[in-house]
Specification:
The structure is a single chain. With 78 residues, the chain is mostly helical. Helices cover 63% and strands 0% of the residues. It has one domain. The chain contains five helices and no strands. 17% of the residues are buried.
Length: 78
Amino acid sequence: MTHDDLKKQFHPGLFWDVEKIDPTLHDSFVISRILEEGDASDVRNLFSLYSENKIKETVLTSRRIGDRTRQFWQACFK
């Protein structure tokens, strides 16, 4: 998946401040941004792009995810 594909698959406003992004290389950034700012459709697409384990790992380790979002997703994964 390329930067342009990413912008097509998710709400275009999610990555307005990023010129180039590699969804594989920058997976933590992409996951964090979508969990923080994305809508339900974006989250569904996120789970089709990344494994649940990768999303869980990012929820636990990313400093880009706020406390409320982290607590919400930790509860969802239980």
